Structure formats: C-alpha cells, structure tokens
Amino acid sequence: MSPLLTRLCVFCLACAIHIGGWAADEQLTLLVYGDSLSASYGIEEQQGWVTLLQRRLDDEIPEVKVINGSVSGETTTGGLARLPAMLASYEPELMILELGGNDGLRGLPVELMRENLAQMIELAVAAGTEVILTGIQIPPNYGPRYTVPFFETYADLAKEKSLPLIPFLIDGIPQRPELMQNDGIHPRAEAQFMILDNVWPILKPVLENLKES
C-alpha cells in the first residue's frame, strides 16, 4: 500500500471514530457559570454542590470535567463581560448558566437582567456550547411587583431559546431555616446535596444526549 493510501485510510478511520459519537476516552467540558450560590460562599470549596457534582460524574459519567467559573457577587452584567474569555479558554460543550440573583438583590431592572442573560446564551450557542438555564427566586420582601416578573424571566427565556430549565436552584432549602446560613441567602454545607439533586434530573439527560450525538 502506498504511503498516500495509508494516510488516507488512517484519516477515514479517524473520521469514522469521531462520527461514531463521544468516544470513551474523549472528555466533555461542563462550565458552571454562576455566582455565590455556585461558588461555595461561606463553606469549603469541597463542600459545594459543584464539587459534589464532579464526584457524582466521576462515578456515573467519568468523561465529564467540570469547570467552576462562578464568582461571588457576580451580576449578569459582569458575567456577560467575562463570558467570551471563558468560552475561548475552556471551549465547553455544555454550560449551566446560574446568574441573576445579585441583580435581583440590588434591585436592578429585570429587563437588563433578561437582556444580559439572552446575550450570554447567544454567545454560548454561537461558540458551540449547549446551555442549561437555572432559575433564581429572590426574597419576598422585595414585593411581588418585582419578584414575580424576575422569577418568570427564567422560564420565559428558556421557552424562547428552547433551553432546559432548572426552575429554582435552591428549591426546598429556604423553607428550612436550619439549612440556610445566617444571611438567609446562602445554603449551608448540609444543603449542598439538595442543590445537586435539583440539578441532576435536568443535567443527566442532556449529558447522555451529548454522549450519544
């Protein structure tokens, strides 16, 4: 067999392996892009739900590597400014977008948050990254005229952009004060497994679909 024909056969074999799906030794990068709820605020990093997620993935889908790009205090404006560099650096196949809580706590306009989230989604999709959107609720003392449209923004965006939605990242936790830190905003270490359990049913099918595609 000539050297040219040999190289052609090797190339075709490599293409066939790639087209065949997510190879066993191929790594998929998952970017968690959020704020203090995902940045282990007030607890040790190894206790946070993102670290717990990596451990579960190591057991169930070990090809997935988690990058935690979360920053405490981050707003959607700050997240939008940082995202292009994050996408370029890590080239994630999937991103969990968990931002907006600090916009709400600062009483920033809901429309600004929506526009920033939409732009981040568009940037990710343009880079070949699938997105899972995470909904956030803010304390009821902000009043229903603000809290209701704030919370509804996530479901509206998920529907508009055809995205999987985790309705409320810390669902079931704020109702139990013993699971919240003294600030009443951030879950304690004991509640991090509950956050993971809110994420996992939405995340797992997306990962399995990526693996088969």
Largest sheet: 5 strands, parallel
Summed over residues and divided by their number, the pLDDT gives a mean of 91
Radius of gyration: 19 Å
Q: Tell me, what's the shape?
A: globular
Percent strand:
5-15%
Secondary structure: helix percent: 40-55%
Please report the number of helical segments. 7
Low-confidence residue ranges: 3-22
* Amino- and carboxy-terminal Cα gap: 34 Å
Helix-strand string:
HEHEHEHHEHEH
Please count the beta strands (DSSP E, at least 2 residues each): 5
Biggest sheet: strand arrangement:
2-1-3-4-5
Q: How does the helix and strand content classify structurally?
A: alpha/beta
Task: Describe, in plain words, how this protein is organized in 3D.
The protein has 213 residues and is an alpha/beta fold. Helix content is 49%, strand content 11%. Strands 2-1-3-4-5 form a five-stranded parallel beta sheet, sandwiched between helices. α2 links the parallel β1 (28-34) and β2. α2 (49-60) crosses α7. The longest helix is centred in the last third of the chain and has 21 residues, at 192-212. The radius of gyration is 19 Å and the shape is globular. Residues 3-22 have low confidence and may be disordered.
